[in-house]
Structures are given as C-alpha cells and as structure tokens.
Design goal:
The protein is mainly alpha-helical. It contains 4 helices and 2 strands. Helix 2 (22-30) crosses helix 4.
Length: 71
Amino acid sequence: SDVAAATGRAVPIVASGGISTPEDVRACLDAGATAVQLYSGLIYLGPGILGELTRGLSSAPPRSAEARPTS
C-alpha cells in the first residue's frame, strides 16, 4: 500500500509469491496490488486453482471503499 500511495496508483503493482487461496488474493489486492501472479499455486495445486480462486473471490464480501484501488 505504501508503493501504491507513493505512485498515486499510476504504476501497476503485481503481487506474486505464495498466492494460493482467495484470501491470499484479497490480501494482495487490499494491500494495493492491481494484479496477482500465480505460479507456485498452479504448479502445486494444478489448473483447478483458477476456478477455486474465482469462486472464492466472487462469494467474498465486497472490498471496503478504502481498500479499492482508484484509477
């Protein structure tokens, strides 16, 4: 979130490393990431992780206005 604030969110921030659950994705986005990169999760959990993350994120409560990135 410090990088996002320092750049005025003008620079894309891609989170990576250890992302394998919807909670991981949400934490990255709430911290200011504009995207997440999946690699280890795909290797260790297989391509089914994509559906799991999508379902988990779509059933999660909406992010607070303070946590949403602005354009």
